[in-house]
Amino acid sequence: MKHRVGSLDYGRSQRTISWEDALEAFLTFKQAQGLRPRSIADYRETITQFFKTYPDVWASDCKPSLLRWLAEAKSPATYSLRFINLRAIFKWCMGQGWVKNNPLDGLSRRRAPGKARLIEIDSLRLLLRQPNPKTFVGLRDYSLILLTLDTGMRPGEALSLLPIDVNMTSREAHIRPEIAKTGLPRTLPFSPSTAQSLARLLAVRHPLWEDDAPVFCSQDGNALRVNSWYQRIKKYSDNCSLNLKPYDLRHAFATIFL
């Protein structure tokens, strides 16, 4: 059921539209621009969450509710995600003539303070001993940890890799533009030990999966969600009294490289 249709510029526009329809039109535009599916999902989730939290502000002045919702964000990252996504749709609606001003003009995103961490090599070795490489899931996790430490690729990028993206001969992983956070392709080399582990992982894939299933898929051949990978790393790090997240492996790559 759609919420009441309201005027996006708070009563001054001749065109009325529901917030659901405005959102779908905005997302279609972003898809046409080639925006990654993850970013599209972030837009949808954030904007929907706001208007479901404040369902009665659609046809009125949104600014007080927007400011209240932003103020409730507990971290700079949450604040910035809400701010960037909502500012983007209001800016786009201005271009459509549906709104005469952006209620978030004058505000800026928050930047979290840097939190570089030094992860000792012994801690990484301990982490690598947690997955059981005799099982498909364990071998997958072990290979993914190695690849991240070798290349520093983002979790979402690694989980989107297909077999055709991995060149075992040259020992390189290709990040396609559609899975890269920046939208720019890049090629990342990895070590012989990582190549050996990846070769084992690719060799035990079910033949029916062919090249459609990601390299680091579930045991059923389905895509592994970033949140699921976070939970896997949390389990392993808890087992060895560490406090690590997938992104910490990217930081470890940078530190080791330097």
CATH class of the largest domain: Mainly Alpha
Helix content: 40-55%
Record field, number of beta strands: 3
Low-confidence stretches: 1-15
In brief:
This protein is mostly helical and 258 residues long. It has helices spanning 19-32, 37-53, 63-71, 76-95, 121-128, 136-151, 155-159, 192-203, 226-239, 246-257, and strands spanning 166-167, 172-175, 186-189.
What does this protein look like?
Strands 1-2-3 form a three-stranded antiparallel sheet, with no helix packed on it. The termini are far apart. It has two domains: 1-114, DNA polymerase, domain 1 (Orthogonal Bundle); 121-257, Intergrase catalytic core (hpI Integrase, Chain A, Orthogonal Bundle), CATH 1.10.443.10. A hairpin with a 4-residue loop joins β1 and β2. It is mostly helical. α1 (19-32) packs antiparallel against α2 (37-53), α6 (136-151) packs antiparallel against α8 (192-203) and α6 packs across α10. The protein has ten helices and three strands.
